[in-house]
């Protein structure tokens, strides 16, 4: 059992970017490749968990997980998660969810007639915060991609969203983060933290999965 500490644990994990349609041919997106999330989903499954992966659009090969649900928009990801949130023990939000979406996608392709175009955007629901605010929430793990004051913003996010753990990474630098094969993480919980130095995302995912398992067990022992 020591090698598979998450045996019987039901995991729900979001990964990848979301796409917010502007019209039938265009969308607002972001640079998330989904790689970290897919690697983490596999690493958690390897530790014995039963992982349901809710994936935004990616070009990655299919990961070895129990179940996979493909979604496109933040609202679709939100409903896919909420429909399953009551039946999971551990929720891991690695997805780069769009903060805003166009109010109403245009029915037909937007024409380039005007010199300037204003887009009206509305806030998307915060999936992670909503799961963490449920009456008996699963153990929640979030991510924080920051360009500066990484630890401070991440700890604030941990408290504000009511999470059990947060994995923070420094983005926008030379190495690591979005569109990179490597990453480094500062993992933070209420009364502790650990640095996972720059390494290949597959290895990093294994180390993070082991740390999540450790904190998860500690949480349930308490
Ligand atoms: O607040 P911020 O977007 O920086 O928080 C990032 C964390 O919240 C990530 O774990 C991300 O997956 C999650 N998130 C979410 N739904 C959103 C926005 C972020 O689940 N609408």
TrEMBL record:
EC number of this enzyme: 4.1.1.36, 6.3.2.5
Keywords assigned by UniProt, alphabetized: Decarboxylase, Flavoprotein, FMN, Ligase, Lyase, Magnesium, Metal-binding, Multifunctional enzyme
Catalysis performed (reactions): N-[(R)-4-phosphopantothenoyl]-L-cysteine + H(+) = (R)-4'-phosphopantetheine + CO2; (R)-4'-phosphopantothenate + L-cysteine + CTP = N-[(R)-4-phosphopantothenoyl]-L-cysteine + CMP + diphosphate + H(+)
Record's GO cellular component terms: phosphopantothenoylcysteine decarboxylase complex
Pathway membership, UniProt: Cofactor biosynthesis; coenzyme A biosynthesis; CoA from (R)-pantothenate: step 2/5; Cofactor biosynthesis; coenzyme A biosynthesis; CoA from (R)-pantothenate: step 3/5
Region (Phosphopantothenate--cysteine ligase): 11-222
Required cofactor(s): Mg(2+); FMN
Cofactor stoichiometry and binding remark: Binds 1 FMN per subunit.
One of the protein's GO biological processes: coenzyme A biosynthetic process
Ranges annotated as spanning the membrane: none
Function: Catalyzes two steps in the biosynthesis of coenzyme A. In the first step cysteine is conjugated to 4'-phosphopantothenate to form 4-phosphopantothenoylcysteine, in the latter compound is decarboxylated to form 4'-phosphopantotheine.
Similarity section: In the N-terminal section; belongs to the HFCD (homo-oligomeric flavin containing Cys decarboxylase) superfamily.
Name by which UniProt lists this protein: Coenzyme A biosynthesis bifunctional protein CoaBC
Included range, full protein: 180 to 401 of 403
């Amino acid at each position: 059992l020591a090698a598979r500490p998450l045996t019987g644990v039901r995991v729900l994990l979001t990964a990848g970017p979301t796409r917010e349609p502007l019209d039938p041919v265009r969308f607002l997106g972001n640079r998330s490749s989904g790689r970290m999330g897919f690697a983490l989903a596999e690493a958690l499954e390897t530790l014995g968990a039963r992982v349901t992966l809710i994936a935004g659009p990616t070009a990655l090969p299919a990961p070895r997980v129990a179940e996979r649900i493909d979604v496109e928009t933040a609202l679709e990801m939100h409903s896919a998660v909420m429909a399953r949130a009551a039946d999971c023990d551990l929720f891991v939000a690695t997805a780069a969810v769009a903060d805003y979406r166009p109010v109403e996608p245009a029915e037909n392709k937007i024409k380039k007639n005007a010199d300037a175009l204003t887009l009206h955007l509305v806030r998307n629901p915060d999936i992670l915060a909503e799961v963490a605010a449920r009456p008996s929430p699963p153990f929640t793990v979030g991510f924080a991609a920051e360009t500066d004051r990484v630890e401070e913003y991440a700890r604030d996010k941990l408290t504000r969203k009511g999470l059990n753990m947060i994995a923070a990474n420094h983005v926008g630098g030379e190495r690591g983060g979005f569109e990179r094969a490597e990453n480094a993480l500062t993992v933070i919980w209420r009364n502790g933290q650990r640095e996972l130095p720059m390494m290949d995302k597959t290895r990093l995912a294994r180390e993070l999965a082991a740390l999540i398992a450790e904190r998860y067990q500690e949480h349930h022992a308490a």
